[in-house]
């Protein structure tokens, strides 16, 4: 075996498919059997804003064209509002691009990636399967599964999430910084009487955290509310006991700019935390996706970073001569160096914005809102921000 990928999420599957035209022999281990039925009657509460560079990547994998176009929504603009009059607006038209991102359901991408993986000649799917022991040796890696099977490979790729078993088994210590917030996600139907969301993503920085409304097809929106944990639990309890009042609370937080809201999917919540790894590679091991880094969701770039990890690592491995050792540390360092700058920059930016708009930073209110307004009136700076986002 050349490569064993541990984790069948979006990043792990994308890496496997990106290596489909190579001579590499690949195995992918996933603990849960994949859901491959259509399941499209209900909307997924977990959605992502996929950047243009990653829509092209997924298109190269043969995935993008298989997604149902009636479930996709392009983002044509973004409207960011501060907590004291600051405002920053981005427009795809003003930046000379067709769209800033595209909103996609997580389950839809997962489903298409799994279906493609099942037909890949150089890929063996071990699912369900659980790893039990890992040994990284000089010439190979040995992975023992719970059922007793042992796999030998030149390279192990950890794609098993922020609490990665693989990363821990390899002895890589990471630093977690809890944000003491939860991300509350839900979808709604908006009963606005005017032009609807106009494919504009909206974000508010306020005393209850950071509220984002992302456009879905027709007059639907998806919410991500990054809010203190106590408030998140209050919202979940309210949604369970008084869904109408929950919808009113969400609509009010967005200044009723989309009118009244009706719940489309039950809200879910997940804890938010920053995770930094000192290294994303070591001999015979590479980390990708959330196993390598996590960031605050206010930028919407978490899954985009994971896809770019997969694309970059796949290119490094594909450029290997056929006789080369794909677990060679010096070659893996090429992947690490290629990804480090973008990951560190986005982690630093999102963490800084989170801190800047905390209620405890109230004395900075004037400056932070002034900064939003200044950026909004600086076309060159706005265009640079858009270009960076498009390429991430």
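-> sequence recovered:
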């Amino acid at each position: 075996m050349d490569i064993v990928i541990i984790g069948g999420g979006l990043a792990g599957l994308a890496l496997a498919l990106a290596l489909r035209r190579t001579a590499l022999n690949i195995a992918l281990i996933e603990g849960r059997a994949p859901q491959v039925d259509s399941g499209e009657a209900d909307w997924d509460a977990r959605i992502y804003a996929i950047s243009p560079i990653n829509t092209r990547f997924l298109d190269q994998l043969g995935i993008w064209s298989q997604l149902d176009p009636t479930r996709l929504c392009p983002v044509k603009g973004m409207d960011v509002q501060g907590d004291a009059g600051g405002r920053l607006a981005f427009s795809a038209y003003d930046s000379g691009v067709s769209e800033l991102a595209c909103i996609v359901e997580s389950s839809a991408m997962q489903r298409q990636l799994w279906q493609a993986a099942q037909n890949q000649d150089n890929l063996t799917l071990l699912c369900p399967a659980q790893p039990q022991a890992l040994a990284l040796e000089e010439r190979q890696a040995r992975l023992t599964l719970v059922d007793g099977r042992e796999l030998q490979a030149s390279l192990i790729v950890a794609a098993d999430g922020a609490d990665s078993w693989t990363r821990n088994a390899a002895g890589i210590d990471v630093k977690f910084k809890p944000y003491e917030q939860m991300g509350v996600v839900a979808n709604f139907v908006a009963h606005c009487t005017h032009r609807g969301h106009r494919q504009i993503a909206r974000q508010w920085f306020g005393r209850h955290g950071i509220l984002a409304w992302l456009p879905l097809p027709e007059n639907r929106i998806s919410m991500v509310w990054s809010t203190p944990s106590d408030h998140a639990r209050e919202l979940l309890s309210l949604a369970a006991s008084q869904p109408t009042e929950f919808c009113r609370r969400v609509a009010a937080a967005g200044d009723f700019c989309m009118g009244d809201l009706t719940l489309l999917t039950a809200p879910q919540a997940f804890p938010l935390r920053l995770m930094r790894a000192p290294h994303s590679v070591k001999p015979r091991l590479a980390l990708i996706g959330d196993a390598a880094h996590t960031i605050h969701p206010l930028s919407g770039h978490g899954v985009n970073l994971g896809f770019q990890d997969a694309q970059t690592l796949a290119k490094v491995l594909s450029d290997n001569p056929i006789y080369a050792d794909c677990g060679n540390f010096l070659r893996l360092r090429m992947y690490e160096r290629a990804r480090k700058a973008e990951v560190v920059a986005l982690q630093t930016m999102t963490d800084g914005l989170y801190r800047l708009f905390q209620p405890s930073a109230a004395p900075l209110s004037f400056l932070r809102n002034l900064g939003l307004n200044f950026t909004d009136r600086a076309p060159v700076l706005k265009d640079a921000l858009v270009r960076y986002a498009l390429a991430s």
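The mean pLDDT is 90.
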